[in-house]
Every structure is written in C-alpha cells, then in structure tokens.
Amino acid sequence: MIKKTMICWIGISAVIMLVLPWAAVTFVKADGGMAVCFLLFFAVNPIYSLIIGAFAGKDRKHLWSLPVISAVLFLTGVWIFFDMGETAFIRYGLAYLALGIAAMVISSLIRRKAQR
How many other C-beta atoms can be found within 10 angstroms of the C-beta atom of residue 67? Predict the structure, then answer.
C-alpha cells in the first residue's frame, strides 16, 4: 500500500514540478509567461509543498521523502526549462522543502496528539 501511495504522490509531484514549468515555457508567450511563472512559484508550488508535507505527516516513517522528492523535482524542472544552475531556484527549492517538512512535522504532531 505504501509503494502505491508513494508512486501516486511522485507522479503528482512530477506533473506539478516538471510538466507545469514545461507548459509555461512552451505554451504561454511573452509577459503572460512571466505571470504564469509567478503564479507557479508563489502560489501553486508552495501550496502543493504544504499539501504533500501534511500528507507525509500521516506516516513520517515511510513518507518522509515526499517533500524531498518534490523539491528535487522542482529544481530539476526549472533547471531544464529555464536556466541550468541558476542559484535563485535553489532558494525556492529550499523554501518548498522547508514548507513541506514543517507541514509534515505539524501534521504528525497533530495526529499524535489526536491519538492520545
């Protein structure tokens, strides 16, 4: 069951962190592309990082890697489709990782407290 869950979440992460930047670069032109990138970087990706972290908090022992995988996929996607090695994207990736880990820890604490 855990493997199936992991594969499902990794697939969703791949779509959000790889396919969406590709679509932004490929299909949206000029200033609209910049607006879409802002939407991705400041809304979609942080919200997704919180969601995947909260889900990983349900079973930290087995799902702890989901926020890490999501952040790595983000870096891979933006380096492929925007600018390879751009250090600003590392900061975004670390911020998404921090959001995911924080959500995972909080979710885990809430779950543990509710079980008592």
Answer: 27
Alpha-carbon span 32 to 38, nearest angstrom: 10
Computed on alpha carbons and rounded to an integer, the radius of gyration of the chain in Å comes to 15
Phi, psi of 64 (to 5 degrees): -60, -25
Give the C-alpha separation, 39 to 60, whole Å.
29
> What's the rounded Cα separation, in Å, for the pair 21 and 26?
8
What is the C-alpha separation between 73 and 79, in angstroms, rounded?
10
> Distance between CA 96 and CA 68 in Å, rounded?
9
Tens digits of residue pLDDT in 18-35 = 999 888 888 888 778 888
**Residues 80, 58: Cα–Cα separation, whole Å:** 32
Name the residue with tokens 């959500």.
103
Helix locations, 16-86, DSSP H: 20-27, 30-39, 45-56, 60-63, 65-81
pLDDT of 9 higher than 90: yes
d(CA 106, CA 80) in angstroms, rounded, equals 33
